[in-house]
Amino acid sequence: MPRILSGIQPSGELHIGNYLGAVKNWVELQERYESIFFVADYHSITQPFEPQLLRRRRREMAASLLAAGIDPAKATLFMQSDVPEHTELTWIFNSVTPLGELERQTQFKDKSQRQESVMVGLLTYPVLQAADILLYRGDLVPVGEDQVQHLELSRVVARRWNAQFGGGEDYFPEPQPVLTPARRIMGLDGQAKMSKSLNNYIGLLETSEQIWAKLRPAATDPARQRRTDPGTPEVCNIYHLHKAFSPPETVEMVAVNCRTAGWGCIDCKKVLHESMDRELTPIRRRAAEIAERPAIVDEALAAGAAKCRVIARETVDHVKERMGLA
Ligand code: TYM
Predict the structure, then answer these.
(1) Catalytic residue at 193?
(2) How far is it, in rounded angstroms, from Cα 89 to Cα 43?
(3) Which residue owns the Cα nearest ligand 1 atom 36?
(4) Would you say the pTM of this structure is higher than 0.90?
(5) 26-37 pLDDT tens trace
(6) Among the CATH numbers 3.40.50.300, 3.90.79.10, 3.40.50.2000, 3.40.50.620, which is that of 3-185+294-322?
(7) Which of 41, 147, 176, 189 to probe ligand 1 with, by most ligand atoms within 8 A of CB?
(8) Structural fold of domain 208-288
(9) Contact 139/176 with Cβ under 8 angstroms?
(10) How far is 17 from 11, CA to CA, in rounded Å?
């Protein structure tokens, strides 16, 4: 059975961009594949962070993934830093990763431009990601579009290590991304990708009231100035959210009523709010249950780390053996 694997940073709360672009797909794929998911806490220290807050967010992210539907009976969930082989393999992979490949990563270019002094971890971030994936010899990686370039780098690393040390065998498979139709959800500003670092998101666990307070003023088709102006659904972020949350008949109705100005933007947002409530209410309920019984999170993470340590050790031992390090 092919193995799928993916991670998420605990740099903020789980938002509907993460959910629609990746986590919802994890929940579906765990039914059909051997699945490994983790909270990428070592990745999140490559940007400025506050230790107390990080400690809380790591746990909250794990709890949110369980609430979103990751089932420890079907999938393995763990905390990246609980499996030391991730950093061990990263160091080894540093020796087969060309500097130029790292320097041209768009996320590195974007993030390093926003900082006065850039730490090495931000540059080698994708090498850690390659180690995350290749440690488990993952075949498929369900992610949003922004991770596709990082996955290309993982394939470069796999190819180079295989060529230099594989002894004629492709020990590491070249991992492929698995994208959803919601691979790039825009923020409520309609300007940038929805992201934890920009305050343009809806948290997966926000209350119905909080979500409405954010949806109400959210950007729509900028050409639709008055209630009577017909709109163009394809340029409206609310329409794209409908495609992710509403049934096809509703999406069709939204498109017609937007084009004919049958509905105003607020009418359209009210329907979206109902669709979101339908999908998110059970997730909020599960999150409340998990909050009552925190041992669920601890047990899932402990079992996940124990299982992953065994697989990861085997890989690193093999790699060291092939490289003359053992
Ligand atoms: P992160 O934490 O930024 O995001 C987690 C997942 O959510 C997806 N995503 C989105 N999808 C659609 N629209 C959006 N606006 C949006 N924002 C985020 C991301 O593409 C991602 O799939 N480097 C990774 C974490 C990571 C990882 C890995 C992933 C570490 N190691 C190994 C896969 C395999 C990251 O920062 O994701």
Answers:
(1) yes
(2) 14
(3) 9
(4) yes
(5) 999 999 999 999
(6) 3.40.50.620
(7) 147
(8) Tyrosyl-Transfer RNA Synthetase (1.10.240)
(9) yes
(10) 14
